[in-house]
Structure formats: C-alpha cells, structure tokens
Automatic annotation (TrEMBL):
Keywords: Membrane, Transmembrane, Transmembrane helix. This is Phage holin family protein. It comes from Syntrophotalea acetylenivorans. The chain crosses the membrane at residues 29-47, 59-82, 88-107. It comes from the Bacteria.
Amino acid sequence: MKGLLVRWLMLTVAIMAAAYLLPGIQVSGVFSAFFAAAILGILNALLRPLLLLLTLPLNILTLGLFTFVINALMLMMVSGVISGFHIAGFWSAIFGSLVIGIVSWLLTSMINDQGKMEVITLQQKRGRWE
C-alpha cells in the first residue's frame, strides 16, 4: 500500500513538471495535480488496457506510436474532470503525456514495490562487476 502512495506522489510530481515545462498545461495547485494523478492512475488502470486492445491493429501499423495518442486522450479526459487542471489542445496533451511518462518512469524506477528506494551496490571481483 505504501508503494502505491509513493507512485501516486511520483505521478503528481510528473504532472507538476509537465505543467512547469509546457505552456499548454496549467495546474492551479498541488491538490489539483494530486487529484489529476489519482484520476489518471484510475483511467490508466481501467480504461487504457481496453483502448490498447481495441486499437491494436492501428497500434501495430504505426509501430506503437498510436499509444501516444491514447495517452494524450487519457490526459485530456482528466483535464475535463479536474477543474484546476487544464490542457490547451491535442498537441499539448501529446507533449504532456511524453513529459509525464518520462518523468514518472525516471522517478518510479528508483522505487521498489514496498515504496522504498533501491540502491544497487556493485563490487569488482576478479576483474568483473558483481
């Protein structure tokens, strides 16, 4: 449960980073980003797999690039639900989904399932790193 809360906070930070970096995304405050992350997480868990399955032929034809369109549509749906979270247009949603995806991936790659930081220690033994 702690890991879920940490990932939720990481997604909130990613949304705030997208709002800071892109002029087409506006967040009125931390609480709006927090609730937007909650709605985005729920949509990604429930609706995104169904959309990916339904658009599988198109996704195969575009070599997976249509996934960015699906992510942008999810972001625009969240923008319609949360009043303090606004996306100016489709291209802002595309670039916002890219920024949110990259920042979220970078932040959550350092967190394990229990919500703790993982540290990998490498030692050199007999010329090899282990």
